[in-house]
Specification:
Layout (H helix, E strand, L loop, with lengths): L11 H9 L5 H19 L2 E4 L1 H16 L10 E5 L26 H8 L3 E6 L33 H8 L5 E6 L5 H7 L2 E4 L24 E6 L2 H11 L26 E4 L10 H16 L3 E4 L8 H9 L5 H6 L9 H8 L7 H22 L4 E5 L27 H9 L3 E9 L2 E9 L4 H15 L11
Parallel strand pairs: 2-3, 2-4, 7-8, 7-9
Antiparallel strand pairs: 1-3, 4-6, 5-6, 5-10, 9-11, 10-11
Helix pairs in contact: 2-3, 5-6, 7-14, 9-12, 9-13, 12-13
Length: 473
């Protein structure tokens, strides 16, 4: 049963209902996803590993289980996974020659939870080496393209997932977000994704390992999808402590359906004091805020605390050791790197002293405290994802000079909430020159249900303005 070609594709939630009603089999649904991947991947280069025979066998087993009365929360749903996250028996390269032949003997915690819930892992998706770029390209697998224009980037580092979802070739994805790696591809590819609160989802089984580095708790595994309700479907399944990740905790996860718009106070801003956004991006944030106000929410234009340090704090923390951990992890690559990643490697300075690192941590936590305090004055904050839509490959975001490409100032809107450790959902709400534009919906820590609820409202209110699911062939 092929995926439909009408304007409104079924969500994963709807496909699950059809599976439960036995109007479609898992084998038929999985085969349709494989067929779609095979149709678009020559243009996108989004999928780097897929064993169709094994995946179909898993789908048949799922159908047999359902026929025998076994029904689990995600029974028979196909999911794709970013290739920085371990999937037992499949390559898990992290986009690097250093792990070219690495096949883990166990799943990452999030993947094990998906399988236990009945999901079927279809394949692994492309990313920049070491998950360290907003351009999905690497020396091992090459470049991934945006489904709306193959001359443009799908973003990174979960760019393969974003491109695949944007081409309607996957129903659900699992990505990871340090400084925007879920949110940028969702924004550039017209899809949705949530960076959860730090500690919501264990990052056990992710490479590079980050808990014992300057990343601390900034790296988050999270769901990516075509519809907001599908994020809400996946997030509870992968959440909760595994008693391995030291940052993972057991905070309650609320229900987005319990959220009422007229109970919410929503703030918005369009400039972070660092990078000006395109007029269309500014209008997208304002129009979204006004739509929520018209729907009954209490909406205010706000001024956030000083965000100008966000990008420098983010990279200073990561590179505090002068890149020694990165170089060690990548020894097996024998110097085979994409030029962009090589530039990043060459840009590491000297490692800082322990005293200076303690001072840096103090700045980090002060920034986090200020921004979290600001968030606690509102139920949700709307702001840009970055300065504009997907740029051409190896070009900086809108308004950023080419010579400042490696300064990453255009992504300061994302780095702020990475340092803050706050949850943020990206949802498409507008377009610029035929390319999708999203907004960030940020909520207080551990209030993902509010972020998801507001994003879902915007999806229904603003959907007519958004280019979705490019029918690339």
């Amino acid at each position: 049963m092929p995926m439909t070609n009408d304007t409104r594709r079924p969500s994963a939630v709807e496909w699950l209902q059809r599976l439960d009603a036995k109007s479609v089999s898992a084998e038929e649904l999985v085969q349709s996803v494989i067929d779609r991947i095979e149709a678009v991947n020559p243009s996108l280069n989004a999928v780097v590993a897929l064993d169709a025979e094994q995946v179909i066998a898993q789908a048949r087993l799922s159908d047999n289980e359902r026929a025998s009365g076994i029904s689990r929360p995600l029974q028979g749903l196909p999911v794709t996974v970013k290739d920085s996250i371990d999937v037992e028996g499949m390559i898990s390269t992290g986009g690097s020659y250093a792990r070219e032949n690495y096949r883990p003997d166990k799943d990452a915690t999030a993947i094990a939870r998906l399988r236990a819930a009945g999901a079927i892992i279809v394949g692994k998706t492309n990313l920049p080496e070491y998950s360290s770029s907003y351009e999905t390209d690497n020396a091992l697998f090459g470049r991934t393209n945006n489904p709306f224009d193959i001359n443009r980037t799908p973003g990174g580092s979960s760019g393969g997932e974003g491109a695949l979802l944007g081409a309607d070739a996957s129903l659900l994805g699992i990505g990871a977000d340090g400084g925007g790696s879920i949110r940028v591809p969702s924004h550039y590819c017209g899809t949705v994704g949530i960076r959860p609160t730090v500690g919501r989802v264990p990052d056990t089984g992710h490479w590079p390992h980050t808990c014992d580095t300057g990343y601390r708790d900034m790296m988050c595994i999270g769901p990516m999808a075509r519809y907001v309700e599908d994020l809400a479907l996946l997030l509870p399944v992968i959440s909760g402590p595994d008693w391995i990740d030291p940052y993972a905790c057991g905070a309650d996860l609320g229900d987005p359906h319990s959220v009422q718009l007229n109970d919410l106070h929503i703030g918005f801003y369009t400039h972070d004091g660092v990078a000006k956004v395109s007029p269309e991006t500014r209008a997208a944030v304002i129009d979204s805020a006004m739509a929520l106000e018209k729907g009954g929410g209490r909406v205010s234009e706000v001024t956030p605390p000083d965000l100008t340090q966000a990008t420098s704090l983010f990279f200073s923390m990561i590179g505090a050791d002068g890149g020694k951990r990165t170089w060690r992890d990548l020894e097996g690559s024998e110097g085979r790197h994409h030029i962009q990643f090589q530039t990043l490697l060459d840009g590491f300075g000297e490692s800082i002293s322990l005293t200076d690192y303690f001072d840096l941590q103090n700045q980090f936590f002060q920034f986090r405290s200020r921004l979290r305090h600001f968030l606690c004055g509102y139920d949700a904050i709307l702001c840009p994802v970055t300065t504009g839509p997907a740029p051409l490959h190896m070009q900086p975001p809108y308004g950023i000079p080419q010579e400042e490409y490696y300064n990453y100032a255009g992504f300061n809107y994302l780095h702020a909430y990475a340092v803050a450790g706050a949850p943020s959902t990206v949802v498409p709400v507008a377009e610029q020159e035929g390319l999708p534009l999203g907004v960030q919906v940020v909520s207080q820590p551990y209030q993902e249900h509010i972020s998801l609820a507001v994003a879902g409202l915007l999806e229904s209110m603003m959907g007519e303005y958004v280019p979705r699911f490019k029918p690339i062939t």
